[in-house]
Design goal:
Layout (H helix, E strand, L loop, with lengths): L4 H18 L4 H4 L8 E7 L2 E11 L3 E9 L8 H15 L4 E7 L3 H6 L3 E9 L2 E9 L4
Parallel strand pairs: 3-4
Antiparallel strand pairs: 1-2, 2-3, 4-6, 5-6
């Protein structure tokens, strides 16, 4: 979890680079006004911020992983796994038995390696194809 406002700024910087700059997500869709209601996670290595995710509790579905982003140069280093494991541990500590997320199609193999099961039809989110995925916490 974050240690202060500088960490939140690092999370936002990563999201800007990955989602807005690389993937052309419109700024008004990325900055959805929900950040203050979320718990944020930041992966660092040697002091450098590499990846981020946020946990949002949705009254309809429970624990949701959102805004999972890893800088291009850090992909494949374990930064994404680290933020997801921290997010899942936090959800479990709050009594949630599962985490859901909307996964970009290109990221499905990453989530499946972490134990997520993909379900439902493909859908568009910010011009990017996605599918829903869920992980039962405590399951390998």
């Amino acid at each position: 979890m974050l240690e202060g406002s500088a960490d939140l700024q690092a999370c936002c910087a990563i999201r800007r680079i990955v989602f807005i700059d690389e993937q052309a997500v419109p700024e008004d869709e990325e900055w959805d006004g929900l950040d203050t209601a979320c718990t944020h996670f930041l992966a660092r290595s040697a002091g450098a911020a590499l990846g981020t995710a946020r946990l949002r509790i949705d009254p309809k579905v429970g624990a949701k992983a959102e805004r999972v982003a890893v800088l291009k140069e850090a992909r494949g280093t374990g930064a994404g796994r680290a933020v997801m494991e921290a997010l899942e541990a936090e959800a479990l500590s709050r009594g949630f038995e599962r985490v859901t997320l909307a996964a970009q199609m290109q990221a499905l193999p990453f989530y499946e390696r972490l134990g997520y099961v993909v379900y439902g039809p493909e859908f568009d989110d910010a011009g990017i194809p996605h599918r829903m995925a869920v992980k039962e916490l405590g399951a390998s």
